[in-house]
Structure to design on (514 residues):
């Protein structure tokens, strides 16, 4: 197996992008990554596109073939990778394995989703199609609904409170205002969404006990990276970032069939495998992008990957341990909560944000000083398919 | 007329593990032989939520959904017949029934409903 480096990264601002088609977004993000890698008009050997919903939302299939045509990356190998909200992470994994194996040298990985093309009603149904087709979907369950049921159990078992969840909303939305690529551009006011009598109007219950601002927005967006063998990356001008570790694990589709439905086993296993491969421990990580589609998930994942003991994640967040300058800064991009969650883009965007961190090129108000190791967690289904990557700045 | 609860759970013939929904191999021992089991008696509410942003196909204001465990240990998701989450509590007894849960292509789709037992 060869060491694999990320030599280019790029993304387009997430949000509502009425003027762009899905193919436009995938193309723009890809060009930014190609330019960032300094590949200019060169081609790549293979392209992996992470996307969940082109078939359902755009009535379009085989988008990877369409993308290589638009970008004239012909005759590169190309395919789309669909793995629910972990499609982006799965596309990165496919690129990683292809380069590590020695079969391809230069690979483009791009993830994108255009969700605002349809009404919120349709988008909610689209995301719900990943639930069990007989035992869950017909009842009208949604992903926020799954998260609501999970939150109720997590609160009962570990004493997580709305105050803990609020700390995640406030932190991530504040960081989003500092990130030019984030969907959400407005910081939240604690009084307006929590303390004051009209908080229930501004921040109504969305999937009890979760409120509106516990949920990520519905977004359009795309992000891309370029991979090549580390050996070939050493001639480049920007510091390459090594994919030092990778792990993936699955779990039962329904929560009720897990021995302990609050135990996100796939998160623990994916992170353990990634740490093992990187020969690092959770304490060695300087910055992390976790999959906070719902505020409870940032807390639960920060415990399951090993940053905090079970039941300590919420307290750590309210104590500021996950802010810039804290013990382990989490989601300095704003996370899914504020950067947005165009499902197929997310797993790639998380990697892009950690690449920026490890190349030390972010403004002071978001940059972790001297960051060398980063972690991403991309959470598919309701934790039934999870990918984790450990990235490392390479000292040349 | 009351409809029978049309849910089938699967008990592994080798190790006894109970499954719902269906798996082709046992989640505990990978055996492929199952005995079909019907849910029995009332159920206990394990968790629940009220969903206010409903998916396409549902046009009510909100929906109460939960997971409950039957007396013979089968666990399943269902809609809850109550006015608000204030009437619900984890661990409470609920009475199951098989009723229309949504309309698709102009036809009623049947599924589990749970009603709190006072
Ligand atoms: Zn068995």
């Amino acid at each position: 197996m060869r060491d694999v480096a990320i030599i280019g990264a790029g993304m387009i601002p997430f949000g509502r992008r009425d003027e762009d088609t899905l193919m436009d977004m995938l193309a723009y993000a890809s060009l930014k990554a190609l330019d960032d890698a300094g590949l200019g008009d060169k081609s790549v050997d293979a392209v992996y596109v992470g996307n969940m919903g082109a078939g359902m939302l755009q009535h379009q299939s085989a988008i990877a073939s369409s993308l290589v045509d638009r970008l004239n990356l012909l005759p590169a190998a190309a395919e789309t990778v669909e793995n629910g909200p972990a499609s982006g992470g799965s596309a990165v994994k496919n690129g990683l394995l292809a380069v590590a194996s020695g079969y391809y040298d230069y690979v483009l990985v791009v993830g994108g989703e255009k969700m605002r093309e349809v009404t919120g009603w349709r988008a909610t149904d689209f995301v719900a199609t990943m639930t069990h087709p007989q035992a869950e979907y017909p009842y009208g369950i949604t992903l926020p609904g799954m998260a609501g049921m999970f939150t109720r159990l997590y609160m009962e078992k570990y004493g997580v409170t709305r105050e803990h969840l609020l700390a995640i909303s406030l932190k991530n939305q504040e960081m989003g205002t500092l990130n030019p690529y984030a969907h959400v551009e407005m910081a939240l006011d604690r009084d307006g969404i929590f303390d004051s009598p009209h908080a229930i109007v501004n921040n109504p219950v969305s999937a009890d006990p979760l409120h509106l601002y516990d949920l990520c927005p519905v977004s359009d967006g795309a992000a891309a990276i370029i991979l090549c063998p580390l050996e070939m990356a050493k001639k480049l001008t920007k510091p390459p970032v090594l994919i030092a570790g990778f792990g993936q694990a699955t779990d039962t589709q329904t929560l009720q069939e897990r021995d302990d439905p609050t135990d996100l086993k796939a998160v623990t296993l994916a992170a353990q495998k990634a740490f093992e491969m990187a020969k690092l421990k959770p304490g060695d990580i300087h910055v992390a992008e976790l999959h906070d589609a719902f505020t409870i998930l940032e807390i639960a994942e920060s415990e399951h990957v090993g940053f905090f003991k079970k039941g300590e994640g919420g307290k750590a967040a309210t104590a500021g341990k996950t802010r810039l300058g804290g013990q382990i800064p989490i989601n300095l991009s704003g996370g899914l909560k504020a950067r947005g969650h165009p499902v197929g883009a997310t797993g790639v965007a998380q990697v892009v944000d950690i690449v920026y961190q490890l190349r030390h090129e972010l403004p002071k108000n978001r940059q972790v000083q001297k960051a060398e190791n980063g972690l991403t967690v991309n959470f598919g289904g309701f934790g039934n398919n999870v990918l984790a990557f450990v990235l490392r700045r390479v000292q040349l | 007329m009351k409809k029978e609860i049309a849910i089938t759970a699967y008990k592994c013939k080798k190790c006894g593990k109970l499954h719902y929904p269906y798996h082709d191999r046992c989640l505990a021992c990978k055996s492929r032989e199952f005995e079909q089991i019907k849910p029995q008696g009332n159920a206990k509410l394990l968790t629940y939520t009220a969903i206010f942003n409903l998916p396409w196909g549902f046009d009510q204001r909100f929906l109460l959904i939960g997971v409950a465990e039957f007396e013979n240990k089968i666990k399943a998701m269902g809609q809850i017949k109550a006015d608000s989450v204030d009437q619900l509590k984890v661990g409470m007894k609920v009475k199951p029934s098989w009723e229309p849960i949504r309309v698709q292509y102009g036809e009623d789709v049947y599924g589990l409903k749970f009603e709190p037992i006072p």
Remarks:
- The first strand of chain B starts at residue 9 and ends at 12.
- The mean pLDDT of chain B is 96.
- The beta strands of chain B are 9-12, 18-19, 34-37, 43-51, 63-70, 75-80, 93-104, 107-116.
